[in-house]
Every structure is written in structure tokens, then in C-alpha cells.
Amino acid sequence: MAQVETFDILVFGGGKAGKTLAIEQAKAGKRVAVIEAGLIGGSCINIACIPSKALIRSAEVAHATRRASEFGTHADNIRTSLDLVRNRTASVVAEMVAFNQTGFDASGFELVIGWGRFVSPKTIAVETGNGVRTLTGDKVFINLGTTAAVPDVPGLAAADPITHVEALQLGDMPTHLLVLGGGYIGMELGQAFRRLGAEVTIIETGARLAPREDEDVSAALLGVLQDEGVNVALNCAGTTVAGKSGQSVRITTADGRAFEGSHLLVAAGRRPRTGGIGLDLAGVELDGRGFVKVDNLLRTSAQDVWAMGEVAGTPMFTHASLDDYRVVSGQLKGGHRTTDGRMIPYCVFIDPEFARVGLNESEARSRNLEYRVARLPMDVVPRARTLSQRKGFMKALVAKDTDRIIGFGMLGVNAGEVMSVVQMAMLGDLPFTVLRDGIFAHPTISEGLNMLFANVK
After folding, report:
1. Whether residue 442 lies in the annotated active site
2. Any known ligand binding at 378?
3. Domains plus CATH for the chain?
4. Mind listing the pLDDT tens digit for each residue in 131-140?
5. What are the positions of the active site (predicted)?
């Protein structure tokens, strides 16, 4: 058996929570190793958040250029090179990877590149380019994330569909991109590729897009995409797939509808990276969906083993994973932070953005909470008019018997930034009247909060 190397802290997977914890503990003088299959800095930087938002930005510029005449500027012979878009995206990623590597080197932890699996409690064998290394840690933190799910649809696997990873690396523009799934990833990339010049059809099995949102949000999102020429097909149950993505592909539904395209993008959810890594040998239990089972301190069923981020069932956002780091870091320092009652906001980077924090109406009703609702169309916000970005609306929920804000959603320009203003009020347990009566600079999008909360009865 190979010699076992001992560390104080062993981090299995270098996502946001894991790398942040590793840097902190290494700087504190602990002997730390991070086992990573190859994505320096984690999936967010390499294949998810950062590259997708870089691609989306290129699409926004293309879209704005085509609208230039609306603002008094004539731009002729507009062309988009997906090859150059890909290169720009890769450049952004490379800069972020280099930045992370510099931080890793400065902290002093050991980065072990290779595929790992548990071989016994708190002990991981890693297949590196130079053979197998076996590492053990006094404390082990699992931070392996998730991968794109490919559902069991007849013919889908044989069609070699692309996921968001391959979509960000395309050098040739699809003539017609079929997107299987109308969730956040499907909407973001569907709109982006439409703006870059591809025909796009989003195929959703459900009755509406973004089914976890209120119906008015789903309808507005549908309108945004359709206005830009994205074909959206709903209620597409019983799909079958034929052909090859990148050549010619055809999707047929149970009710006889057929969609043909050049490329097929699967955006149908994500699955945890928990298979084939020896978790049973580590004494780590999984829940019914295959995620690592944890308590509110992110402790697993195994002694001195924690799980963080998406692999632990944490909401699939980098900022949520960062808070998982705070939960486990606090325990190492004698603190008592838990995952209970966390307020986790999120933003969907279609254009205009959709952002939400707290409860929506359907969630409030499911909890039997009585509330007041205020709604404001973006069209009445002066700054939205000067920007010619008038689509969308703001909506706030205020508790019926108190003035506490229990939820806020916005589809509109700068929605993520405006949401953060409301979130600060919610974190401070401030009444809605603070935002109703506060003095906001004019003309800004946040100024719309005055008008929104003035509608609370």
C-alpha cells in the first residue's frame, strides 16, 4: 500500500467553499491539501458563472449594436464571430484562474490535481499524473459540486447533446439551437445564442417557464424571450430524440410536435458528484436524491467529515457555497453559525435580469402567511425610460400585520443591484416604510423602490 500522507485539513474538491476554507486554514498555519480533478478555482470560474456571464455580455453587446439606430447611431454590416466570442470568454476565465492560483500559492496549501476516491474513513486515494497518492486528514471537507444532468429521454444520450460546458466553447454558430429545458440555464443561454445570431427553440416539459416562480413572472419571462424571436414550446411531454448534435437533430413530443435543429443543448437540471467516489467506505450517507446528507452545521454521518456547497444540497449558487464556508469555518473557531433560516438571494442573468430574495406569493400561501403585495411596472421608472429598458416589473410582499418585507422580486434592468438594497432592509428587519420614504438619487433604478412601496396598502 502506498505511503499515507497526513494533513490537518483535507478538502475534497476545490469549489468556492472548499478553496476559501483551505486558504484560510493554510494561512493560519494548518497543513492543508486540496484534491481537485483539474478546475483551478472551481466550476464557477471555469465552466459556469464566469464564462456564461462573459458569453452573455458578448450577446448583450451584439444586441445593443443592432439597436444602435434607436439611440441615434447607425451601425451597418453587423456581424458576430462566435470564435472571437469564445476566445474572449476563455481569456476572462484564464485571468480568473491565474488570480486564484496566485492566491493558492500565497496561502501555502498543497494542491493535488487528480481524480480521488475514499478508500477508508477520512482517507482518499488520488490518481495523479505521477501515480497514486494516498492522503488522510484529521478533518475532511467534501466540496465536489454537481454536473449537468442528462435525463433518461429515448435517443438523447445517443445524440451526444452539449451541456452548458460545451456551449461555452463552441467556435461555430449553430444554425438552430434546440434547448431541452426551460429553467434558468436554458433561458440564459437560449437568449444569448439568439442574440449572437442563432435560431433558438426552448423545449420545456412543464406548462410554463421557471415553474418555481409566480405565474406573472413566468409569463413575463416568456414574453421577453418571444419578443426577441426565441421559440418557446411548453407542455412537451414524452419527448424522443433522433440524430446527432452538431449535425442534425430532431425532437418529437408525445402530442406529435417536432422540432429540428443543428445542435441540442441539455439544460435539465444537475446531479451531485457523489457516485463512484467511495463514500460508503468513508461512512458518509446520501439522501434520497444522491446528495450528501448533512445537518445544519454541514456535518455528515462520518466523524470529522463535513460537506459543503451543491454536493450537500445547498442551493446551487456560488454565494450560498461561500456561506457554507462561513458555517464550517465558524465551527473551527468555536462559533455557532448554522444553515438555519438563511436568506439566500439569486439572480437570473437573462436581459433584463430577474432577481429575487425571500418569499414569492406561492411560497407565502403554502406557509399560510397573510401578506400585502405591491407591484410596479418598470415602464414608470424614469431611469428605465432614459435607458430604453422599460420591460419588467418590481413586486414586494409585506406581512399583513407588521410592516416587515417578506419577499421581493424584480424583472428589470439592474434587478440584482436593486434586490440587494431590499435585502439589506430585510436583514436589518426594517419596515417597508424605510424604503418608501428614503431619499434615493434621481434618476436611478433604485428610486423605483419609493414608488413600489408607496403602493403597499
Report:
1. yes
2. no
3. 4-147+271-332 (3.50.50.60), 157-268 (3.50.50.60), 352-454 (3.30.390.30)
4. 999 999 999 9
5. 442
